[in-house]
Amino acid sequence: MKIAIRMDDISPQMDHVKWERAERILMERGIAPLLGVVPDNRDSNLNREDKPEEEVFWTFIRECQEKGYVLALHGCHHVYDTDQGGMFPLNTFSEFAGHSYEKQLERLSHGKEILEKHGIRTELFMAPAHSYDKNTLKALKRIGITKLTDGFGTRPYEYCGMTFYPIAHHLEKQWDKPGYTTLVLHTNTMEEKDFERLERIVSRREVISYSEYLQAEPQKAGVGHRLWEYWMATAKRVLVQIRSGRSR
Ligand SMILES: [Zn+2]
C-alpha cells in the first residue's frame, strides 16, 4: 500500500520543534505531506508555544507551499460547538456537523478568505475531529473545495460530487494490501515512540508525497461503501472509548 502523510493542527502556537523533527524525517526522503492549516485558531488545546508575530506564521505556511506541500483548510476556529459526529462519526463533536448550511458556509468562507488573503491556495478540506455532514459538503462545493481528506478505503473515491482521500484506520493491519492510504500525524502530541514509528514506516514502506496521492484515479463509491465506512468509524470510536476507559 502506498502511504501519504497528513499533518493536522497547523496553527501559530503549535509545537514547532516537534513539527520540524517530523518534517525532517519526511524531507530526508523527499516526501511532501498534506498540512491541515487552521485559519483562525481559537482552540487553546492546540497552543504549545507563545504567540508569534502573525506574519511569521503565514510566511512559514507560504514556504511550505513553495516546497510543494499540499495545504488543506482545517476548519475555521477549530472549536467544537456541536455534539454531532456527522457522516463519519469517529468523534461525537464538531465545528460543523449539526450546524445550519448558512452557519457552515459562513465559517468555511471566512476560513478560506483568511488563507487566500495570505497567499495560500487550498485544495482540500480537513474536517476538525473528522466530523462533517451533508451541509458541510454543500457549503464546501459552494466555496470551490471538492476534495476531502477523510473516509476509509484503499483508493480515492467520489461521493456526493466530492472526492474523498481515505485515511488509515489501522495502518499496520492494512499496509500489505494494494492501493493507497493516509497516515495521520498530530505532531503536537507525538512522543519518542511515535517518532520511532514514523522513522520505521518511512524507511520500510512506500511512502509517497501527498501530491502523488491526489493524482490517483478516484472510483465511484456507492451507498454500500459509505454504510461500511460509517459503521467502521462508529466501531473505531467505541473501541477507543473502551480502551481509554480501561487506561484511566
Ligand atoms: Zn484538528
Please outline the helices and strands.
Layout: E1 2-10, H1 16-27, E2 34-37, H2 54-66, E3 70-73, H3 101-117, E4 124-125, H4 134-142, E5 147-148, E6 157-159, E7 162-164, H5 171-174, E8 180-185, H6 192-204, E9 207-208, H7 210-214, E10 219-220, H8 223-247
Parallel strand pairs: 1-2, 1-8, 1-9, 2-3, 3-4, 4-5, 5-7, 6-10
Antiparallel strand pairs: 6-7
Bound molecules: zinc ion.
Overview of this structure, please?
This protein is of the alpha/beta class and 248 residues long. Helices cover 40% and strands 15% of the residues. It has helices at 16-27, 54-66, 101-117, 134-142, 171-174, 192-204, 210-214, 223-247; strands at 2-10, 34-37, 70-73, 124-125, 147-148, 157-159, 162-164, 180-185, 207-208, 219-220. Helix 3 links the parallel strand 3 (70-73) and strand 4. The longest helix is centred in the last third of the chain and has 25 residues, at 223-247. The protein is globular. The structure holds zinc ion. Residues 8-9, 74, 78, 128 line the site of zinc ion.
